[in-house]
Structure formats: structure tokens, C-alpha cells
Inverse folding.
DNA sequence: AAGAGTACCAACCGCCACTTC
DNA sequence: GGAAGTGGCGGTTGGTACTCT
């Protein structure tokens, strides 16, 4: 097999999409779906690479995309999940229906990150600052993948919290770093829904929970 | 009014993980 | 088991809109 480059240099268009291209892509996907992104542009008659088509569809053309400003609630979710997961935008996006990883990433870099930096400078005590404490510690609890992808897990719920019995959920890409990220822990029920709770005492319990879970899995030799 | 600086966001790039052969 | 194909992710860039001087 010869590996073909993602975008053949010849004849493939780059840059902003035109309304005509959008229309072609939408109608093609509505008609045939997107079984194979690399083959799609050819089938649809687009001079774009498959990756570009996929990105355009996922980030802009998908019918369930939610446009407009992020709500306070969404901001809070992003901040807390970022505190736990780090820059795993796609995972965070699964908890924000209608929002794309790209949108969340942009929002983080253009709004939240700056706000966090400002609030840190002002020394104010609010949730943003708390999250900043998590982020600036450079911590990332990768086992939290299990929280976010709980719907895929073979799992059981204890007191509304989740136990994961599927180490396939655990990222191999990023080795686990256990640190202050526990502080911003978000818990989830068995269906993967986030249980929102800003109470410090509960956060403390969650820290303990996640810490114990990490230690248990570590001792059992679960790869994380 | 115009140029400079800044903010925002769509899109690209390179890498990695999973799947298929 | 390993090589190749493919999809997906995160980092980054570049263009445009907006604000300030």
C-alpha cells in the first residue's frame, strides 16, 4: 500500500469556504453521509482535501451546531473540565452539546484564559481563580477521561460518582499526572451527566474520591 | 480619516491512535 | 505482527473586524 498524502498539492483549494462549496458539501452529506472523508471531495466534486471537508462539516455546517455566545453555565463547565482534563478540547466538547472542540478551544484562548490571568492578578477569590489554581499547577488527571466518557464505560455508580471498569477509556496519549487538578473535580452519574456542585466540601470529597481511585487503580496495575 | 494595535475565529498542519489488510 | 490507510485531536496561523490613538 502506498500512503497517499492528505492533500495532494495539485489542484486542491485552501482557505475560506464559499457558500457554494458549503452547499455542495451539505447536500452531499445529507444524501450519502460521510462514510469516507478522503473519498468525499471527489464524489461531491469539491476541490478540497477530505480533512478540510470534515473540519468544515464538524465545525460549521453540522445542523446541530449551536452558534452565539457561551452562557455562564457553559463557561463554568469549560473552566472546571479544563481544570481536570487540561487541553482535551474534544472531550470537553462532548459535555457541551452543539459546541465544537474548535469553538471551545478558541473561546478558551480568547476569553477564559485572559480572564483567569486577570483574576489571578487581582487576587480575587472566585471560581475562575480556583480553576486557575488548577490550571497553573499544570495538572491533568487523565483518568478523568472516564468521567467524561462514562457513557461508554462498563461502570458502576457509588453515591452518584463513577467507578470505571474499562481501562480502554484511559488515555494512552497522556500519562497521568495527579495533582491539584482534583480541586476542580467534576463528578458524573452513570449516564455521564455532570453533577454540578460548587461546594468546597463536596469538591474535597471528590478530590479524595479521585485520589483513592487513582491509588487503587495504580496498585492494581491499571494502565492509565 | 487613517494607521496601529488588538481580538476573534475559521482553517490548516502535524502528529497520534485506531483499523484494516 | 507490522505496514499502510484513515479519522480525529490539539496547536498554531492568518485574515478580518473592531477599537484606540
Amino acid at each position: 500500500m502506498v500512503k497517499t498524502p492528505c492533500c495532494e498539492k495539485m489542484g486542491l483549494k485552501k482557505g475560506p469556504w464559499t457558500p457554494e462549496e458549503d452547499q455542495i458539501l451539505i447536500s452531499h452529506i445529507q444524501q450519502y453521509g460521510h462514510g469516507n472523508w478522503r473519498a468525499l471531495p471527489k464524489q461531491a466534486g469539491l476541490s478540497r482535501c477530505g480533512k478540510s471537508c470534515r473540519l468544515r462539516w464538524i465545525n460549521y455546517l453540522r445542523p446541530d451546531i449551536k452558534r452565539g455566545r457561551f452562557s455562564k453555565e457553559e463557561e463554568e463547565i469549560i473552566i472546571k473540565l479544563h481544570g481536570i482534563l487540561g487541553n482535551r478540547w474534544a472531550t470537553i466538547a462532548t459535555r457541551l452539546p452543539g459546541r465544537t472542540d474548535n469553538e471551545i478551544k478558541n473561546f478558551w484562548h480568547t476569553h477564559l484564559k485572559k480572564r483567569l490571568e486577570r483574576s489571578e492578578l487581582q487576587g480575587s477569590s472566585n471560581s475562575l481563580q480556583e480553576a486557575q489554581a488548577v490550571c497553573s499547577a499544570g495538572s491533568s488527571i487523565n483518568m478523568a477521561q472516564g468521567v467524561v466518557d462514562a457513557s461508554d464505560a462498563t461502570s458502576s455508580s457509588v453515591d452518584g460518582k463513577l467507578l470505571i471498569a474499562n481501562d480502554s477509556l484511559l488515555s494512552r496519549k497522556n500519562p497521568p499526572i495527579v495533582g491539584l487538578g482534583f480541586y476542580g473535580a467534576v463528578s458524573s452519574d452513570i449516564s455521564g451527566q455532570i453533577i454540578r456542585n460548587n461546594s468546597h466540601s463536596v469538591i474535597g470529597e471528590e478530590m479524595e474520591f479521585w485520589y483513592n481511585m487513582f491509588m487503587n487503580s495504580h496498585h492494581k496495575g491499571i494502565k492509565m
Notes: The beta strands of chain A are 155-158, 161-164, 187-188, 194-195. The first strand of chain A starts at residue 155 and ends at 158. The radius of gyration of chain A is 20 Å.
